[in-house]
Amino acid sequence: MKINDINMYYEIHGEGFPLVMILGAVQNIFWWHHNLINKLSEKFKVTLFDNRGAGRTDKPRIDHTIKMFTNDTVGLMDALKIEKAHIFGHSMGGQIAQELVLNYPEKVGKLILCATTCGGPKEVRDEIANKTMRLLIRHYKQYKIFELVNTTMEIVLTEEFIQNNPEAVKETYQKIVKNPTPIHAYRRLLKASMGFNSYRRLKNIDTPTLILHGKKDILIPSQNADILADRIPGSKKIIFEDSNHGPHLDNNVEKLTQVMLDFLTN
After folding, report:
1. CA nearest 211: which of 106, 110, 109?
2. For labelling alongside 149, which of 109, 126, 142, 158 has CA 20 to 30 A away?
3. Residues 6 or more apart from 78 whose CB is under 8 A from it?
């Protein structure tokens, strides 16, 4: 579908009150765990899409910003005649979700922020996170697909999960290698995320908000969830003790699904 200056790939699953799911940099629709989407679509009209620069959506060679991604999301909602929806955002998708609720609060029923950050100088980045990001960037620059996929796997899944769940790991591997993001698009996605800063504005969010994070997240340390919870009035925080950056992909996917359903239906 033509949205703003791009052709955007999207899917709709189920019926009911709209739920818009926003993924992070380099991720695409294939990354959603099928059990998560199947269960959510029993209660909601779930809209999934690939951000500009990712998956089957256009990858224009222009600078990106989180505000631009937000306008794409709102443009898709308007095109699909979605006046109001619950919003879920993972990683960079959580930054997009923050920008959306801050600029279009009337369009958001409830907000779920997963494995994300407020960005800016208040963002927590430890040495492990910085090392992980440098490694990922190096593999992208060299575009060594095997090393890139392995590094990505180590970011979204814990070492224990990788060792003990070979079939699930294989499934995640297959998700990652489908429609990989080209280096020129990845650089723009990363630059957009690194330029985001919502810290001072978080206090203005008066939408019911749930914050989810993996305790073992090596890309965005879980202290960032504490910052969001402290700054967003009335928000609720849940930490998955044995998740890395991908609680929507690991052994916590069923728990995450139930937590989401409990929050969205009560």
Report:
1. 110
2. 126
3. none
How many domains does one find in the chain?
1
Please indicate, yes or no, whether the overall pTM of this predicted structure exceeds 0.85. yes
**3-class DSSP assignment, residue 113:** strand
- Listed in sequence order, the DSSP H helices in the chain are 34-40, 66-79, 92-103, 127-142, 145-156, 159-164, 166-177, 183-194, 223-231, 253-265
> What percent of the chain lies above the pLDDT cut of 70?
97
Q: Could you tell me which of 48, 67, 58, 41 has the C-alpha nearest to residue 3?
A: 58
CATH number reported for the structural domain that contains residue 59 in this entry = 3.40.50.1820
Evaluate whether 199 touches 119 at the Cβ level (below 8 Å): yes
Domain that holds residue 187: 2-265
- CA proximity to 172, closest of 27, 25, 11, 37: 27
